[in-house]
Specification:
Radius of gyration: 19 Å
Order of helices and strands: HHHHHHH
Number of strands: 0
Mean pLDDT: 89
CATH topology of the largest domain: Hypothetical Protein Yqey, Chain: A, domain1
Shape: elongated
Distance between the termini: 45 Å
Number of helices: 7
Largest sheet: none
Low-confidence stretches: none
C-alpha cells in the first residue's frame, strides 16, 4: 500500500476510534502529500512527510528555547505519529558499520572529510541519520 492509501486508512481508523490528536496530524500529512503537485521541486510522498517532521522538530526546539513544556510535549506526540510514516533509519551501530565498510573501500584523507561525507550520503542517504554519519566519518578520518 502506498503512503497516501496508508494515511487515508489510518485517518478513517482514527476517526472511528476518536483519536483527535492523531487525526489532526494525519490530516496535515495527507494535505502535504496531496499537495505535492503544487510544489515546484516535485518531492516524493516520503519527502513531504520528512519535511513536515523537520518543521515539527524545529518548532519543538523553539518552544524549548522559550521554556514552554506543554507545547514541547504536544509536539513530541505529533513527531511520534509522523515518525510512523517515515522509513526507519539505521541505528548508530549499524551506521558505524556502514561507515567502516565505506571507508575501507575508499581512500579519503582527513582533509577530504567533506568529500567523504558527500559520497557516503549519496550511497546511503535514505537509510542513515545524516548527523550521526557526519560525526562518525569525521572521527574515523581524524583517527586514521
Amino acid at each position: 500500500m502506498d503512503l497516501l492509501g496508508r494515511l487515508t486508512e489510518d485517518m478513517k481508523s482514527a476517526m472511528k476510534s476518536g483519536q483527535k490528536d492523531r487525526l489532526q496530524v494525519i490530516r496535515m500529512l495527507l494535505s502535504d502529500v496531496k499537495n505535492i503537485d503544487l510544489n515546484p521541486q516535485k518531492p516524493t510522498a516520503e519527502q513531504a512527510v520528512a519535511a513536515y517532521a523537520k518543521k515539527l522538530r524545529k518548532s519543538m526546539e523553539e518552544y524549548e528555547k522559550y521554556n514552554k513544556p506543554d507545547e514541547v510535549a504536544k509536539l513530541k506526540g505529533e513527531i511520534a505519529i509522523v515518525d510512523e510514516y517515515l522509513p526507519k533509519k539505521a541505528s548508530a551501530e549499524e551506521t558505524a558499520k556502514l561507515v567502516d565498510q565505506f571507508l575501507a573501500s575508499q581512500s579519503f584523507t582527513e582533509k577530504q572529510v567533506g568529500q567523504a561525507i558527500g559520497a557516503f550520503m549519496k550511497a546511503n542517504g535514505q537509510q542513515v541519520d545524516p548527523g550521526t554519519a557526519n560525526q562518525l566519518i569525521k572521527q574515523k578520518l581524524a583517527g586514521k
